[in-house]
UniProtKB/TrEMBL annotation:
Species this protein is from: Maribellus luteus
Domain of life from the UniProt record: Bacteria
Gene3D superfamilies cross-referenced by the UniProt entry: SGNH hydrolase
GO molecular function: phosphatidylcholine lysophospholipase activity
Stated name of the protein: GDSL family lipase
Domain SGNH hydrolase-type esterase: 64-223
Entries under InterPro entries matching the protein: Ester_Hydrolysis_Enzymes, SGNH_hydro, SGNH_hydro_sf
Keywords: Signal
UniProt-listed SUPFAM superfamilies: SGNH hydrolase
Length: 237
């Protein structure tokens, strides 16, 4: 009887270990089914997403949506408009934005300014995949909040002479190519496309030095230039 119990316990333990191993294998495959990195649930993402989800919705929100370049912008001060809300998350990718788009459109915002894709490029995600995912974001906004005016902003250039992030080296051509793919997507989806890239890049496609300190993120002068482009395009906030 004792021997039977021992065998039964051993069998149960083996089954649990087997199930756990299978679950781990399936989870790992689910998290990384592609030959490039599309993950986004890092700590900063989870904390800021939870924070944004905890905030009350307001009427006529103007949303700036994107990654660290958006997150670091003090948009309220820049445009003197209290209706502006910042939904940037440093390190975010287009997969992460799509995952949290429900929160972004929950208030049925008046306007959304979307810029995303540079971190995907840094992870060597093919630009065609990035563009396709951005189209999904656009379509999600149009479906869930059809009255929202959505602007698709180009990805900004980087300055490869200044940048010290190894994963962003030799990516300037990819940035230019992605922007070329985004233009027809905006036209097909019938939304405005804002070509910030051309305003921030030199003749070699590099982010102009006055606008950056580290080769990718913007200085105060960079954000002021952003506002200037809006003014040139007649966008009033």
């Amino acid at each position: 009887m004792k021997k039977f119990k021992t065998q039964r316990i051993a069998f149960l333990l083996f089954g649990i270990m087997l199930a756990a191993g299978t679950l781990f294998s399936e989870t790992s495959t689910a998290q990384n089914p592609l030959p490039y990195d599309t993950t986004y649930t890092f700590d900063h993402y989870k904390k800021l997403r939870a924070f944004y989800e905890s905030l009350p919705n307001a009427k006529n929100e103007i949303v700036f949506l994107g990654n660290s370049i958006t997150e670091r912008g003090n948009w309220n001060e820049l445009f003197k408009n209290k209706n502006i809300v910042n939904r940037g998350i440093g390190g975010d990718v287009c997969f992460g934005v799509l995952s949290r788009i429900d929160e972004v459109v929950a208030s049925k915002p008046k306007t959304i300014f979307l810029m995303i894709g540079i971190n995907d490029i840094g992870r060597s995600v093919p630009v065609e995949v990035i563009a396709g995912k951005i189209r999904e974001i656009i379509q999600a906004v149009k479906t869930q909040s059809p009255k929202t005016k959505l602007y698709l902003q180009s990805v900004l250039p980087i300055n490869e002479k200044v940048i010290w992030f190894d994963y962003m080296k030799n990516k300037s051509d990819k940035i230019a190519l992605l922007n070329e793919l985004l233009k027809p997507i905006a036209a097909e989806e019938r939304i405005p496309y804002l070509d910030l890239y051309s305003e921030f890049a030199d003749e070699h496609g590099q982010l102009l030095p006055p606008y950056t300190a580290d080769g990718i993120h913007l200085t105060a002068a960079g954000y002021l230039k952003w506002r200037e482009v809006f003014q040139q395009e007649g966008i009033k906030l």
